[in-house]
Amino acid sequence: MKNFICTTCGVQAEKSAKEPKECMICNEERQYVSPNGQTWTTLEEMIQAEKYKNEIVPAEEGLYTISTSPSFAIGQTAYLVQEKNINLLWDCITYLDPKTIGEIKKLGGIDAIALSHPHYYSAQVEWAEAFDASIYIHEDDKEWVTRPSDRIIFWSGESLELAEDIVLHRVGGHFKGAAAAHWKTGNDGKGVLLTGDIIRVVADREWVTFMYSYPNFIPLPASVVERMANQLEKIKFNRIYDAFHRIVQEDAGAAVQRSAKRYVDALNGELFET
Protein backbone atom coordinates (compact mmCIF):
# COMPACT_ATOMS: atom_id res chain seq x y z
CA MET A 1 0.00 0.00 0.00
CA LYS A 2 1.39 3.38 -1.02
CA ASN A 3 0.39 7.03 -0.84
CA PHE A 4 0.61 7.90 -4.52
CA ILE A 5 1.33 11.47 -5.62
CA CYS A 6 -0.01 13.05 -8.81
CA THR A 7 2.96 14.37 -10.77
CA THR A 8 0.91 17.20 -12.30
CA CYS A 9 -0.50 18.81 -9.14
CA GLY A 10 1.71 17.20 -6.49
CA VAL A 11 -1.19 16.22 -4.22
CA GLN A 12 -0.85 12.98 -2.28
CA ALA A 13 -3.66 10.41 -2.21
CA GLU A 14 -4.87 7.99 0.45
CA LYS A 15 -3.03 4.65 0.65
CA SER A 16 -3.84 2.16 -2.11
CA ALA A 17 -2.36 -1.00 -3.57
CA LYS A 18 -2.45 0.36 -7.12
CA GLU A 19 -2.11 3.76 -8.70
CA PRO A 20 -5.45 5.60 -8.70
CA LYS A 21 -7.21 5.79 -12.07
CA GLU A 22 -7.45 9.57 -11.94
CA CYS A 23 -6.51 12.57 -9.83
CA MET A 24 -9.60 14.24 -8.39
CA ILE A 25 -7.76 17.57 -8.16
CA CYS A 26 -6.56 17.59 -11.78
CA ASN A 27 -9.70 16.13 -13.33
CA GLU A 28 -11.56 19.45 -12.90
CA GLU A 29 -11.51 22.71 -14.82
CA ARG A 30 -9.46 24.62 -12.24
CA GLN A 31 -6.54 22.26 -12.86
CA TYR A 32 -5.75 19.94 -15.78
CA VAL A 33 -4.63 16.43 -16.67
CA SER A 34 -1.22 16.46 -18.33
CA PRO A 35 -1.33 16.14 -22.15
CA ASN A 36 1.03 13.18 -21.62
CA GLY A 37 -1.53 11.44 -19.45
CA GLN A 38 -2.00 10.79 -15.75
CA THR A 39 1.17 9.72 -13.97
CA TRP A 40 2.02 9.04 -10.34
CA THR A 41 5.02 8.85 -8.05
CA THR A 42 5.57 8.48 -4.32
CA LEU A 43 7.55 10.50 -1.81
CA GLU A 44 9.83 7.50 -1.31
CA GLU A 45 10.59 7.38 -5.03
CA MET A 46 11.31 11.11 -5.10
CA ILE A 47 13.78 10.82 -2.20
CA GLN A 48 15.49 7.76 -3.67
CA ALA A 49 15.97 9.54 -7.00
CA GLU A 50 18.18 12.11 -5.26
CA LYS A 51 16.96 14.66 -7.78
CA TYR A 52 15.18 17.15 -5.54
CA LYS A 53 16.14 19.40 -2.68
CA ASN A 54 14.25 22.02 -0.70
CA GLU A 55 15.58 25.53 -0.38
CA ILE A 56 14.72 27.40 2.82
CA VAL A 57 15.47 31.11 2.45
CA PRO A 58 14.82 34.10 4.74
CA ALA A 59 12.35 36.53 3.18
CA GLU A 60 12.10 39.07 5.98
CA GLU A 61 12.19 39.10 9.78
CA GLY A 62 10.11 36.13 10.96
CA LEU A 63 9.42 34.73 7.47
CA TYR A 64 11.08 32.00 5.39
CA THR A 65 10.27 30.71 1.92
CA ILE A 66 10.37 26.94 1.27
CA SER A 67 10.54 25.72 -2.32
CA THR A 68 11.66 22.63 -4.20
CA SER A 69 14.45 22.63 -6.78
CA PRO A 70 14.07 21.61 -9.54
CA SER A 71 10.44 22.65 -9.59
CA PHE A 72 7.95 19.83 -9.04
CA ALA A 73 4.27 19.75 -10.11
CA ILE A 74 2.72 23.24 -9.75
CA GLY A 75 5.93 24.60 -8.26
CA GLN A 76 4.43 26.74 -5.50
CA THR A 77 6.29 28.26 -2.57
CA ALA A 78 5.38 27.52 1.04
CA TYR A 79 6.07 30.01 3.84
CA LEU A 80 7.20 29.50 7.41
CA VAL A 81 5.94 32.29 9.67
CA GLN A 82 7.63 32.59 13.07
CA GLU A 83 5.47 34.33 15.65
CA LYS A 84 5.66 34.58 19.44
CA ASN A 85 3.51 31.54 20.20
CA ILE A 86 3.35 29.70 16.88
CA ASN A 87 5.39 28.60 13.88
CA LEU A 88 2.98 28.43 10.96
CA LEU A 89 3.55 26.71 7.63
CA TRP A 90 1.41 28.56 5.12
CA ASP A 91 0.49 26.33 2.18
CA CYS A 92 2.49 23.19 1.52
CA ILE A 93 4.84 21.59 -0.99
CA THR A 94 5.13 17.91 -1.85
CA TYR A 95 8.78 17.13 -1.29
CA LEU A 96 9.92 16.39 2.25
CA ASP A 97 13.16 14.67 3.21
CA PRO A 98 15.22 14.22 6.41
CA LYS A 99 17.45 17.21 5.54
CA THR A 100 14.42 19.50 5.27
CA ILE A 101 13.01 18.20 8.54
CA GLY A 102 16.32 18.83 10.30
CA GLU A 103 16.66 22.37 8.94
CA ILE A 104 13.13 23.35 9.91
CA LYS A 105 13.51 21.86 13.40
CA LYS A 106 16.53 24.13 13.86
CA LEU A 107 14.17 27.04 13.12
CA GLY A 108 11.77 25.89 15.82
CA GLY A 109 9.70 23.38 13.87
CA ILE A 110 6.09 23.72 12.74
CA ASP A 111 3.12 23.99 15.10
CA ALA A 112 0.37 24.41 12.52
CA ILE A 113 -0.17 24.14 8.76
CA ALA A 114 -2.81 26.31 7.10
CA LEU A 115 -3.88 25.95 3.48
CA SER A 116 -5.16 28.49 0.99
CA HIS A 117 -6.93 25.94 -1.22
CA PRO A 118 -6.81 22.30 -2.48
CA HIS A 119 -4.15 22.76 -5.18
CA TYR A 120 -1.56 23.18 -2.41
CA TYR A 121 -2.61 20.34 -0.10
CA SER A 122 0.39 18.48 -1.53
CA ALA A 123 1.87 16.10 1.05
CA GLN A 124 0.37 18.04 3.95
CA VAL A 125 -0.19 14.93 6.10
CA GLU A 126 3.48 13.91 5.71
CA TRP A 127 4.51 17.38 6.88
CA ALA A 128 2.04 17.36 9.77
CA GLU A 129 3.24 13.96 10.99
CA ALA A 130 6.91 14.93 10.70
CA PHE A 131 6.42 18.00 12.92
CA ASP A 132 3.48 16.88 15.08
CA ALA A 133 1.40 19.72 13.65
CA SER A 134 -2.30 20.35 13.08
CA ILE A 135 -3.67 21.15 9.61
CA TYR A 136 -6.25 23.93 9.13
CA ILE A 137 -8.59 23.77 6.11
CA HIS A 138 -11.86 25.62 5.68
CA GLU A 139 -14.80 23.22 5.86
CA ASP A 140 -16.12 24.45 2.50
CA ASP A 141 -13.21 22.64 0.82
CA LYS A 142 -13.55 19.42 2.82
CA GLU A 143 -14.59 17.42 -0.26
CA TRP A 144 -11.19 18.03 -1.90
CA VAL A 145 -9.10 16.31 0.77
CA THR A 146 -7.53 13.29 -0.94
CA ARG A 147 -5.69 11.93 2.10
CA PRO A 148 -7.80 12.13 5.28
CA SER A 149 -6.10 12.53 8.65
CA ASP A 150 -7.07 13.11 12.26
CA ARG A 151 -4.65 16.04 12.17
CA ILE A 152 -6.95 18.02 9.87
CA ILE A 153 -9.11 20.64 11.57
CA PHE A 154 -11.95 21.91 9.38
CA TRP A 155 -12.67 25.45 10.47
CA SER A 156 -15.84 27.36 9.67
CA GLY A 157 -17.05 30.92 9.33
CA GLU A 158 -15.30 33.89 7.78
CA SER A 159 -12.17 34.01 9.97
CA LEU A 160 -10.11 32.00 12.44
CA GLU A 161 -7.55 33.40 14.86
CA LEU A 162 -4.69 30.89 14.92
CA ALA A 163 -2.61 33.06 17.24
CA GLU A 164 -2.69 36.60 18.56
CA ASP A 165 -1.13 38.00 15.39
CA ILE A 166 -2.16 35.45 12.73
CA VAL A 167 -5.73 35.27 11.42
CA LEU A 168 -7.08 33.14 8.57
CA HIS A 169 -9.76 34.73 6.40
CA ARG A 170 -12.06 32.84 4.06
CA VAL A 171 -12.18 35.01 0.95
CA GLY A 172 -13.48 32.45 -1.56
CA GLY A 173 -13.14 33.07 -5.28
CA HIS A 174 -10.76 30.45 -6.66
CA PHE A 175 -12.42 27.88 -4.35
CA LYS A 176 -15.41 28.27 -2.07
CA GLY A 177 -13.27 27.81 1.05
CA ALA A 178 -10.23 29.67 -0.30
CA ALA A 179 -8.34 31.43 2.47
CA ALA A 180 -5.65 34.03 3.06
CA ALA A 181 -3.48 34.43 6.14
CA HIS A 182 -3.15 37.85 7.76
CA TRP A 183 0.13 38.20 9.65
CA LYS A 184 -0.54 41.38 11.58
CA THR A 185 2.99 42.02 12.85
CA GLY A 186 4.77 41.17 9.60
CA ASN A 187 6.64 43.83 7.63
CA ASP A 188 7.64 45.66 10.84
CA GLY A 189 4.07 45.78 12.09
CA LYS A 190 2.58 47.10 8.85
CA GLY A 191 0.95 43.76 8.11
CA VAL A 192 1.48 40.97 5.58
CA LEU A 193 -1.13 39.02 3.63
CA LEU A 194 -0.20 35.52 2.45
CA THR A 195 -2.54 34.69 -0.40
CA GLY A 196 -1.54 31.52 -2.25
CA ASP A 197 -2.97 32.32 -5.66
CA ILE A 198 -6.36 33.31 -4.29
CA ILE A 199 -4.88 36.71 -5.01
CA ARG A 200 -2.04 36.42 -7.53
CA VAL A 201 0.64 39.06 -7.94
CA VAL A 202 1.02 39.73 -11.67
CA ALA A 203 4.07 40.60 -13.80
CA ASP A 204 3.67 44.27 -12.88
CA ARG A 205 4.25 43.95 -9.13
CA GLU A 206 2.01 46.96 -8.43
CA TRP A 207 -1.07 44.90 -9.37
CA VAL A 208 -2.76 41.60 -8.53
CA THR A 209 -5.41 39.42 -10.14
CA PHE A 210 -8.14 36.93 -9.27
CA MET A 211 -9.13 33.82 -11.25
CA TYR A 212 -11.41 30.82 -11.11
CA SER A 213 -8.88 28.79 -13.14
CA TYR A 214 -5.36 30.00 -13.79
CA PRO A 215 -4.17 27.23 -16.17
CA ASN A 216 -7.39 27.41 -18.18
CA PHE A 217 -7.80 31.21 -17.98
CA ILE A 218 -11.35 31.20 -16.59
CA PRO A 219 -12.11 34.52 -14.84
CA LEU A 220 -14.22 35.06 -11.76
CA PRO A 221 -17.54 36.93 -12.00
CA ALA A 222 -17.37 40.67 -11.34
CA SER A 223 -19.66 40.33 -8.33
CA VAL A 224 -17.30 37.82 -6.67
CA VAL A 225 -14.25 40.04 -7.16
CA GLU A 226 -16.15 43.03 -5.77
CA ARG A 227 -17.12 40.99 -2.70
CA MET A 228 -13.52 39.86 -2.19
CA ALA A 229 -12.25 43.43 -2.47
CA ASN A 230 -14.82 44.70 0.01
CA GLN A 231 -13.83 42.01 2.50
CA LEU A 232 -10.10 42.65 2.11
CA GLU A 233 -10.55 46.41 2.47
CA LYS A 234 -11.27 45.82 6.16
CA ILE A 235 -7.89 44.10 6.73
CA LYS A 236 -4.72 46.14 7.31
CA PHE A 237 -1.71 44.92 5.32
CA ASN A 238 1.14 46.63 3.52
CA ARG A 239 2.70 43.63 1.76
CA ILE A 240 1.48 40.56 -0.16
CA TYR A 241 3.34 37.31 -0.77
CA ASP A 242 1.69 35.00 -3.29
CA ALA A 243 2.19 31.30 -4.01
CA PHE A 244 5.08 31.86 -6.40
CA HIS A 245 7.07 34.29 -4.27
CA ARG A 246 5.83 37.31 -6.14
CA ILE A 247 5.57 40.25 -3.78
CA VAL A 248 3.73 43.55 -3.64
CA GLN A 249 6.26 45.32 -1.44
CA GLU A 250 4.36 48.44 -0.41
CA ASP A 251 0.76 49.62 -0.14
CA ALA A 252 -0.58 46.19 -1.10
CA GLY A 253 -4.04 46.93 0.28
CA ALA A 254 -4.45 49.75 -2.24
CA ALA A 255 -3.05 47.49 -4.98
CA VAL A 256 -5.81 44.95 -4.28
CA GLN A 257 -8.51 47.62 -4.47
CA ARG A 258 -7.36 49.22 -7.74
CA SER A 259 -6.72 45.78 -9.26
CA ALA A 260 -10.21 44.63 -8.37
CA LYS A 261 -11.69 47.75 -9.96
CA ARG A 262 -9.66 47.25 -13.14
CA TYR A 263 -10.71 43.59 -13.29
CA VAL A 264 -14.39 44.43 -12.88
CA ASP A 265 -14.19 47.27 -15.40
CA ALA A 266 -12.60 44.90 -17.93
CA LEU A 267 -15.33 42.30 -17.46
CA ASN A 268 -18.02 44.95 -17.78
CA GLY A 269 -16.52 46.37 -20.98
CA GLU A 270 -15.64 49.68 -19.36
CA LEU A 271 -11.84 49.47 -19.38
CA PHE A 272 -11.08 49.42 -23.09
CA GLU A 273 -12.47 49.02 -26.59
CA THR A 274 -11.20 46.24 -28.84
Automatic annotation (TrEMBL):
Record-annotated Metallo-beta-lactamase domain positions: 75-244
Name this polypeptide is given: MBL fold metallo-hydrolase
Source domain of life: Bacteria
CDD domains referenced in this protein's UniProt entry, alphabetically: YmaE-like_MBL-fold (cd07727)
InterPro entries xrefs: Metallo-B-lactamas, RibonucZ/Hydroxyglut_hydro
Species whose genome carries this gene: Planomicrobium okeanokoites (Planococcus okeanokoites)
